Amino acid sequence: MLKIPKPEFKEKSIRTFVIRAGRITEGQRAAFEQWWPRYGLSLYDGSLTDIGYLVPGKKLVVEIGFGMGDSLFEMARVEQDKQFVGIEVHPPGVGRLINCAGEAGLDNLRVYMADANDVLQDCFDEKSVDRLQLFFPDPWHKKKHHKRRIVQKEFVTRVIRLLKPGGILHIATDWEAYAQAIVDLLREFEELENLAGEAIYSARPAYRPQTKFEKRGERLGHRVWDLLYCRRH
Ligand SMILES: C[S@@+](CC[C@H](N)C(=O)[O-])C[C@H]1O[C@@H](n2cnc3c(N)ncnc32)[C@H](O)[C@@H]1O
């Protein structure tokens, strides 16, 4: 019987997530047993190149914090010409995504159950990513918690290093103050060009399905801000 893997993360003083308590259901346990060996990756496996996952000529899309995974599953299903890597620390979401992928027979998706900051640091080669997606990152509303937001200077530096020239950083949030803080921060990086130009915010691209978190916000009347930046060189 497979031991259900635990989320992987290295010691650090500030984390961008809280591991939510909750027992793993029988369905999720079965999903891990059946599908983790096929879709799961470990932070300690080395780079995607070492693992042999990267297919030359196929674009690589990485999504951080995919939650329950519905929208990532949909994108991987529709965009078969690309390879997808999801990173999430919430075991029920990981279980659900690999179950959907397994039942659909997807072969262009792999998943880390780990802290994205560690995965970005250790598992990707420089200039290897075509699109990096961060949809509805935890906004950490209170000022004293802003240091827990994932979009920080160090994170952006890491992302730029991994993007190919011409690669896209796509962030969406329904928290206006966070959107504004991200815009202000990204202005400091001359390597990034805002694809919306003066308009700053982009329309939701056709490839991005609405996420679970977004749909819940929509029912509460929340607006959404999509930010699309391209690595210039
Ligand atoms: C507000 S939820 C949004 C989930 C999903 N993107 C959606 O829109 O439905 C944010 C997610 O990011 C995950 N997360 C936060 N920090 C993370 C990190 N450093 N590494 C991996 N996942 C992270 C959380 O576990 C959570 O599931």
Could you explain the architecture of this structure?
33% of the residues lie in helices and 20% in strands. It is α/β, with parallel strands linked by helices. Helix 3 packs parallel to helix 4. It is globular and about 55 Å long. It contains eight helices and eight strands; from the N terminus they run αβαβαβαβαβαβαβαβ. Strands 1-4-3-2-5-6-8-7 form an eight-stranded mixed beta sheet, sandwiched between helices. The model has no long low-confidence stretch (mean pLDDT 94). It has one domain: Vaccinia Virus protein VP39 (Rossmann fold, 3-Layer(aba) Sandwich). It binds S-adenosylmethionine. S-adenosylmethionine (SAM) binds next to helix 5 and helix 8.
Structural class, from helix and strand content? alpha/beta
Strand order in space, largest sheet: 1-4-3-2-5-6-8-7
Distance between the termini: 48 Å
Just give the CATH class.
Alpha Beta
Please describe the topology of this protein:
Elements: H1 26-39, E1 40-41, H2 48-51, E2 59-64, H3 70-78, E3 82-87, H4 91-104, E4 109-112, H5 116-122, E5 129-135, H6 153-162, E6 163-173, H7 176-186, E7 192-194, H8 212-219, E8 225-231
Parallel strand pairs: 1-4, 2-3, 2-5, 3-4, 5-6
Antiparallel strand pairs: 6-8, 7-8
Helix pairs in contact: 1-4, 3-4
S-adenosylmethionine is lined by residues 16-17, 64-67, 87-90, 93, 115-117, 135-138, 150, 211-214.
